[in-house]
């Protein structure tokens, strides 16, 4: 399921567990924020808003507040001896989308622990290891046969050898 929502004058297409930078938001680190201005909700069927989808919200967890790279605004008026140099760093909030809600449902205010990736079962891992070991043996046999027939290397002629750099001659003074 995906959604398109609007915040800070920009639109973002997101799915659950996406991490993105948005313009600075109110909210502490670890807090859940909701975006109510949802323009599109998609999945099995796409719902377009006119201008927004009624009852749809996007919930996100605030990961961090930070500042972006420095942006230099340099203005010059030629032949006028007029220059202006200003710089700023835009503040942003890093968020992780927790859930996309429809039909007026409310978001969980508690931060859910992220599910850990499940490792492959031992039986499958053993079968894969046997296949990879056989493939590795075949690869080493190919490498060994390649090593038996070394390629001949042509020597570089003396004319092409690098010459040491000499210091440039200085001009005599008059």
How many beta-strand elements?
8
Q: Rg from C-alpha positions?
A: 31 Å
Structural class: alpha+beta
Report the sheet with the most strands, covering strand number, pairing sense and barrel closure: 4 strands, antiparallel
Plain-language structure description:
The protein has 174 residues and is α+β, with helices and mostly antiparallel strands. The chain has one helix spanning 122-148, and strands spanning 2-7, 10-15, 19-23, 32-35, 38-42, 47-48, 57-77, 82-101. The protein has a four-stranded antiparallel sheet with strand order 2-1-5-6, with no helix packed on it. Strands 3-8-7-4 form a four-stranded antiparallel sheet, with no helix packed on it. A hairpin with a 4-residue loop joins strand 7 and strand 8 (82-101). The longest helix has 27 residues, at 122-148. The protein is elongated, with a radius of gyration of 31 Å. It starts with a strand and ends in a 26-residue tail after the last helix.
């Amino acid at each position: 399921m995906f959604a398109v929502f609007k915040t800070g004058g920009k639109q973002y297409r997101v799915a659950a567990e996406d991490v993105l930078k948005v313009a600075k938001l109110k909210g502490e680190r670890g807090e859940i924020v909701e975006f109510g201005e949802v323009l599109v909700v998609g999945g099995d069927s796409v719902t377009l808003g006119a201008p927004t989808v009624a009852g749809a919200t996007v919930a996100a967890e605030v990961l961090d507040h930070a500042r972006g790279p420095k942006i230099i605004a340099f203005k010059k008026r030629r032949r006028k001896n007029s220059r202006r140099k200003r710089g700023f760093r835009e503040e942003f909030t890093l968020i992780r989308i927790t859930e996309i809600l429809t039909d007026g449902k409310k978001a969980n205010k508690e931060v859910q622990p992220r599910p850990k990736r499940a490792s492959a079962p031992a039986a499958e891992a053993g079968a894969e290891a046997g296949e990879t070991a056989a493939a590795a043996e075949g690869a080493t046999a190919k490498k060994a046969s390649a090593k038996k027939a070394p390629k001949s290397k042509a020597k570089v002629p003396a004319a092409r050898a690098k010459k040491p750099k000499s210091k440039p001659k200085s001009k005599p003074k008059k």
